[in-house]
Design a protein that fits this description.
Elements (H helix, E strand, L loop, with lengths): L1 H52 L6 H12 L2 H16 L10 H19 L5 H10 L2 H11 L2 H14 L2 H21 L4 H25 L1 H8 L9 H25 L1
Length: 258
Amino acid sequence: MQKKRQLKTCIVVVVLMCLLTISMTFQTICVKTISDNYINSLIVNQIIDLIIDEETDANFQQINQLQNKIKKSDALYQLNRYAFDQSMRNTNKNKIKLDQKELQKFSTSCKKMIKDELNISIEEKQIMNILKQNQFWNKMIHRMKNKLSSFSKIFVFIYSIMQSIFFRIIILLWILLCFFRLYNLNKSSFSLAFSIVLLVKALIDYMMIGLIEISKSFYIKMLNIPISSISIDSYLIVAMVSLMIGMILFVWHIYKAE
C-alpha cells in the first residue's frame, strides 16, 4: 500500500515538474525561434542600412561584427520578448502599440554598441523610427487571427496560463507538498525516489525536445516564415540539469546503502 502511494506521488510530481519546466521555457523558445529566424535580421539589417547611409568608413568585417553583436544582444531579446508577449495578449486587436520606454531601452543600447564598435553617432530617434515602422508583430497577429483562428485561440489560451505567476506558484507549492509526502512515506528511500523522479523527468524532457523539433512545420504555417531551427537551449539546459542531479542522487543513494 505504501509503495503504491509512493508510486502515485512520484507520477504526480513528475507531471507537475514537467508542467513547471514548460511554463518557464515556453516563452523563451517561441521568442528566440521567431527572433533568430526572422525578426532579428529584419531589424538589424535596417539599422545597418542606416549606418551605411551615414557614409561610414567601416569595413565589411567591422559591419559584420556589429551586426552579430546587435543580434545577440540582451536588449534586442528583451524587446522581442516584450513584443511577443503583447502580441499574444492582444490577438483580439488588429495591431499592438508597443510602450515607448521599451523601444527607448533598445535604442539606447543599440546607439552605444554602434558608438563603441564604429565610433559613429546615431540618434536614438532614428533607431526608434525603424522599430515603429517594423510591422512584423502586427502581421503575426493578423496571421493568427485569419489563418489558424481556432488553433491560435487555444495557443494563446495555453500561453496565458503558462505565463501566469499564480499558475507557477500553485505548481511549485504542489511539487513541494509531493516531496514532503514522499519524505514522510519513507525517509530512508527519499533520495532514491527523488533521483528516480528527476531521471524520469529528464527522459520526458528529451522526448518533449524531440516533439518541439517536429513542430517546425507548425511555426512555418502559422507565421509564414522559413524556420531553419527551433531554439530549445533553455529546455535542453533544464533537461541536462535534471539528468545530472538525478544521476548524482542515484549514485549517492547506492553508495549510502552500502
